[in-house]
Amino acid sequence: MTVLGKRPYQPQPTTKGRISVHPEGDHIIDQHGRLFDYVRIAVNERCNLRCIYCLPEEGIDFLPSEQLLTSQEIIRIVHILAQLQVTKVRFTGGEPLLRKDMAHLVSQASITPGIESVHITTNGLLLSEYANDLYKAGLHGINISLDTMDRQKFLKITRSDCLDKVLEGLNLALSLPFPSVKVNVVVMRDFNHEEIGDFVELTRDNRLTVRFIELMPFDAHQIWKTGKFFGAEKILEYLSGLYPHMDEEEGSVTEEHVYRIPGHEGKFAVIPSFTRSLCEGCNRIRLTADGKIRNCLYSDNEFDVKKLARQGDSHEKIADLFKRAMWTKLKDGWEAQHRGNHLRESMTQIGG
Tens of pLDDT along 284-299? Predict the structure, then answer.
């Protein structure tokens, strides 16, 4: 049966359950009863594209490499988090494939006891070079950021004429037996929203998920508040006009609205990342490339785990910092944004 519009919040099933107790024990919870079993780790800040909603054309001042987490530090943190019942790791950037040791990081994370899946979010530009190595290293899933399949629009969005290379990487990823391949599409009014149907057509013969994502205010003062915002309700309205018959499906916590066209191999989702109707089910921890824990995408309250690691503090102290950081998480992203000071001006500095 086709169901359109906003669905009531339904927590995703979990083998751990939800715990509403004080921040002790071998798990990470907050004061609102949310349990965090998923970490997104930014492995760098730099990117080989200059997307208009993320970076100004001239770029920004990135931190020197010595101020970023090392491979050894990242692997140690993954081991500590696994002991705190974190089961899913996603490596982000910047562009994570700019790191030469990316396959090594994936391999070490994937063999960590307790880690059930390792993922990466990439712009796909280097994917054709590294997809095979990543698969052999144990990568479970790939999310590819791709906002248009039109060459001129791609050039305008990314300031790079390399759409063919990204599509080559996507095709290679689909040809390998990854359990999960997803395409992330940031939808912008009067720019790419009319391509929504073209992206849905990718699901006809491919076992992938296309995710339509709301534009967020982390664009280095580029295009936010220029009328390009195309919200989840508008995306759903547009989809229902194109496809009157859509079967409802299940997805991840952030994939609040998930559908499949009858007969299609893949599915598609709408993610209200700015609307923030999904905060009640949040299960993720964010770690920036310079080693700061962020308990919410919209929060500027950061906790310095790199400092503890570099001064030789114990696993227990680092684990306690993660527990304390997430215990203070606010109820939702609106409250976090209202209390913020906008310390980081670009998504590439936050971590995808």
Answer: 999 999 999 999 887 8
Of 43, 26, 64, 110, the closest CA to residue 288 belongs to 43
pLDDT at 5: 30
**Torsion over CA of 109, 82, 287 and 142, rounded to 10 degrees?**
40
Using alpha carbons, select from 195, 189, 196 the residue that is nearest to residue 215: 189
- Can you give the length of the chain in residues? 352
CA dihedral 12, 13, 16, 21 (to 10 degrees): 50
The CA distance from 170 to 164, in Å, is 10
CA atoms within 13 A of residue 275's CA, in its CB half-sphere: 19
**Can you list the alpha helix ranges (DSSP code H) found in 259-341?**
305-310, 315-327, 333-338
Do residues 131 and 159 lie in contact, with contact meaning Cβ atoms separated by under 8 Å? no
SS3 content of the chain, % helix, strand, coil (to 5): 30, 20, 50
The token pair at 240 is: 């229902």
Question: Which pLDDT tens digit goes with each residue over 221-267?
Answer: 445 455 678 888 999 999 999 999 999 998 887 787 999 999 999 99
User: Does residue 94 have a cis bond before it (omega within 30 degrees)?
Assistant: yes
Q: Which two tokens stand for residue 341?
A: 């000071």
Nearest residue to 320 via CA among 22, 24, 86, 42: 24
**308-352 residue pLDDT tens:** 999 999 999 999 999 999 999 987 665 776 665 555 454 455 555
Whole-number Å distance between alpha carbons of 171 and 146: 13
pLDDT at position 70: 97
